[in-house]
Amino acid sequence: PTTDYAPAVVVGSGYGAAVAALRLGQAGVRTVVVEMGRLWDTAGADGKVFPSTGAPDQRSMWFRNRTEAPLATFLWLDVVNRDITPYPGVLDRVDFGDMSVYVGRGVGGGSLVNGGMAPTPRRSYFSEVLPEVDADEMYGTYFPRARQMLGVNDIDPAWFESTEWYRFARISRKHARNTGLRTTFVPNVYDFGYMKREAAGQVPRSALAGEVIYGNNHGKRSLDKSYLAAALGTGNVTVETLQRVVAVRRDTDGRYVLTLRGIDLAGRVVGIRELACNRLFLGAGSLGTTEILLRARETGALPDLSPAVGTGWGPNGNVMTARANHLWDTVGARQATMPALGIDDWDNAANPVFAEIAPLPMGIEHWVSMYLAITKNPERGTFTYDPATDSARLNWHISQNQPAVAAAGQLFDRINRCNVTIYRYDLFGDNKPFADTFTYHPLGGCVLGRATDLYGRAKGYPGLYVVDGSLVPGSLGVNPFVTITALAERTMDRILAEDGPADRTR
Ligand code: FDA
């Protein structure tokens, strides 16, 4: 294969990658971003970039014959699963036996598909999770910077109280209050001002038209509109799409050489090439980055990588559950897709839980209150390299999610007792009131301070950096992208100040 060269290469285009690309570009470093998904900027035959959740098509999922919406029998019921043509769609579900991991694919990574919730973790818990990271610096500089760059905004409380679109959240709040629990607004990167105009019928609807998980056609400040737009604006950054990194090695000059497999929109391999660089920034996400490094270590391409690569993975304690309300507690046929409120019982030392009040936008009254609970589950998974498939396998047993189920159960048992309500058993299969076999929040695999130094520098390999969610040791207590972004800002500040110019050879 021919070998191209760039001073710096960023793998992936999610949160960590986008921060790296912008800060490298601003520092004048010519940077190539390689992303396995496509660029989502062109409208399809229906005039829209992303498919509607109610009528998913090939754009919705990554090379599937059928869509696999979470809880598809009921949640997002508009999203009845459909047969589709395999295509590089925007949402992927990576199945590892007892654990399935949802991830975004495309320029912008998870920001294209996620619920936009942008909380900052409790400072005390952040310090428990990452004790060696200077919390003053994080809370004084990097969290505020991340929030500002991402366009985090708060819902107007008066509008929240009055709009039919958040009735479902107000009902859940009432039941939390009856239980003596506290709720808190959750900031978001969806533009709440835009949402208000949607409600007023002034602009095309997105969050109020059931859009989320397969992309939002309007309103959401995904990374392609924030960090990545700014990165391209520096003139030093280019993005190459439909290019998957399948190997990395080091040449005799000490440069990193990536093997890239290019595909077309039908998934046919259209080219294998090599791309060399002096500085390699891995932002392929918890699964992607861990797989790249684990493969490199196990195949002997980068044999001195830390034994900690592939360890310390967790699903951020994610568990979903649902309650059935009394007939008088209607949740409304109209529900915004962006959650805006959470039950915050994280300070309950005996049973910390942060439970987001999730919509169930079915277009009809269903009396269901839905939640995504984030719990403090100490269990961790590890990855092993499988040479037969050349991929990373997650070792995670269903029993490892028991602490999360138990914690969510304690909280929602209380809520049910105080409100004389019951769980819904029909939503998650197997007559189970808790969904404990998938996560939206994969974290860890190349943990900060273990597989890397305290700034994401891969141990044993100068010029090789990790910048994404794989650095976070399995748990954060809140949704992760603001923290991933802030840690990447911290890393890039340090690397650009200390590690010298990237362009040794030009
Ligand atoms: P991220 O996963 O964003 O990006 C990795 C990128 O690398 C992807 O674009 C991928 O295609 C690419 N890639 C992977 N392997 C590659 C390879 N070998 N070669 C080239 N490219 C490769 N979080 C939150 O804070 N608030 C929320 O409301 C939600 N809601 C939510 C809903 C849903 C449905 C999902 C799936 C996820 C969320 N999340 C969330 C989680 C959040 O989106 C997630 O934590 C971040 O996107 C992770 O950011 P990273 O930078 O780690 O990687």
UniProtKB/TrEMBL annotation:
Domain Glucose-methanol-choline oxidoreductase N-terminal: 104-127
Protein keywords: Cholesterol metabolism, FAD, Flavoprotein, Isomerase, Lipid metabolism, Oxidoreductase, Steroid metabolism, Sterol metabolism
Cofactors, names only: FAD
SUPFAM superfamilies according to UniProt: FAD-linked reductases, C-terminal domain (SSF54373), FAD/NAD(P)-binding domain (SSF51905)
Annotated metabolic or biological route of this protein: Steroid metabolism; cholesterol degradation
EC number: 1.1.3.6, 5.3.3.1
InterPro entries found in the cross-reference section: Cholesterol_Oxidase (IPR052542), FAD/NAD-bd_sf (IPR036188), GMC_OxRdtase_N (IPR000172), GMC_OxRtase_C (IPR007867), TAT_signal (IPR006311)
Presence of keyword Oxidoreductase: yes
Recorded family membership: Belongs to the GMC oxidoreductase family.
Name of the protein this chain belongs to: Cholesterol oxidase
